[in-house]
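Entry 14. Two folds queued back to back today. First construct below, sequence then structure tokens.
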Amino acid sequence: MPAVQIWSAAPTPLQADLKVDLPSAERMIHDAVAGGLTGVFLGGTCGEGPWLPDRERARLVKAARAAAGDRLKIAAQVTDNSVPRILDNVMAAAEAGADYAVIAAPATMLNATPDRIAALFEEAATASPLPVGIYDLGRHRPIMIPLDRLKRIYLLPNVHLAKDSSGSIERREAALAARREKPSLTLLNGDEFRCLEYLQAGYNGLMFGGAAATAPQLRRIVDLFLAGRIEEAQALDAQTREVLFGIYGGQSIACWLTGLKHYMVARGLFSSSASYLGYPLTPECRAFIERYAAGQAT
């Protein structure tokens, strides 16, 4: 069986003025290398890509490439509301050193017919000078690639990977059907609360924000899975979910991104938990994060 990939859909370190904190980005990349990760996905949902100014996204990718060298793959989100804007973003990502351009559904789209949604992905992926990843959030976004067009998009020659955060069994089956026809397609699970389930279904690996905090557990889950020790993998998967709930503020995910960034601060990787999204940090969440980070340091 090919090696299972573990990617971090990385949070973006920001200064108080919401500009990218380059020293923190460098520390984050060095930590990802030390953690044995395959790559980092920059500017995704957890990375606040839809909110970052273009120049800041480019600074982030450039800093990550400089810190990583050839030790990590770097994917950058290039999502936008039209094909020309997407391709402008792809060129900026390529110039900054990204290996992949990742396209998700835009946050808004007028006249969003199935044909027009599919055409946005097909035209951008075909024209991209970088290999393309498709970021499928399914019903978690107002605009969604129609299920009956998903396989066709995955089979495009320039589509090399998919991050499936849809949580949909039907969309997972469409991805697996595409991979049967195109074995080179890398399928990455973006649902961090269903880690083992997607590995058992046949996905090639994992790509989610929580990997920044749980990489050791994820590597162990993968090792147990590959060794056929499924009950042990299931137990560790359940423990890892509880860690994520602790960092994110419970099953309501009340603290989400602020909790994850506070964890990075507690690890000494980020200088602040500043973000565009303004999630709270409850006393319970803060206490859990500081206990967990201290335990990792011992």
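Second construct, same run, same settings:
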Amino acid sequence: MKPVLDAEPSVSEKRGAQIERILCPIDFSQSSVRAYDYAQSLAGHYRATLVALHIVDLARHPAGYYAPSAPLVYDFKETLIANGQRDLQVLVKAPSGIRPECIVQEGSPADAILSLARERAIGLIVLGTHGRRGLDRLMLGSVTERVLRNATCPVFTVRQTAPDSNTPDAVDHSVAIRRILCCIDFSAHSQRALEYALSLAGAYDAELTLLHVLDDVYSADVGKEIDTTMEKLPKLLPPAARKSPKRHFEVRLGKAYQEILKFAAEAQSDLIVAGMHGRQALDLAVFGSTIYRVIQLNPGPVLAVPV
């Protein structure tokens, strides 16, 4: 993340991104249940409409295709939909004060999520991701990849790192966003990400750190380049916020995604916010963009913001 010569104009905290409609797909895995915790919290802080979506993917139930008649196939599908509606209603009864709209429909998960997001003018998708170990840890899965690649709104990804449990009471449903890390490369992408980071920091009264990683430094005077970058970072904020004790600035040297993850661990960041650059298939390969690797490897949530 090498800085350009001139930083973009500062972002206004009052102009910060507003979130009016939130979509949370739920497949009843631990990761999607945890994602719903965040979706409820965000909906509460922003007074946003929350839509809980369960997709019945018949491809995951191949036995249904072996039913001896079309009516039995239809009955099988209707049973899955009814079960999904029942389970969704049970999940959303948590005493949070948030009453989401519950939708259950048949289809391909990624297509259904993207289609509903367009139809409802969704401002934020909160999505659970599944990979936890081994090769899974380097793969987000086709649904997450397609949503990240094609969504026109920000995508808030949530990973569940604890082993799956059949005991719901064993899961901590609390949500705390006290420290936010915003990745800055002085592009339009990171400017947009900063708008959301500032908005979230205001909503949660959280500390916000702006981090820039110098990963392509050829200057003989690295110290001077670090100092120059440190001078630019505060200028991205409105003047009143630059000296706030809850606004911090950091410059690191190294590989961008590695330094982002390292700093997030050191600072115990509760959320990483970053702009999404390339969103084509090759950009989202297993060892693709910085934000993709951060989503793969960070144990906490990541907000990916497209321009």
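Quick look at the second one. The helical segments are 30-46, 70-91, 109-119, 142-150, 188-204, 222-235, 256-267, 290-297. The first helix runs from residue 30 to 46.
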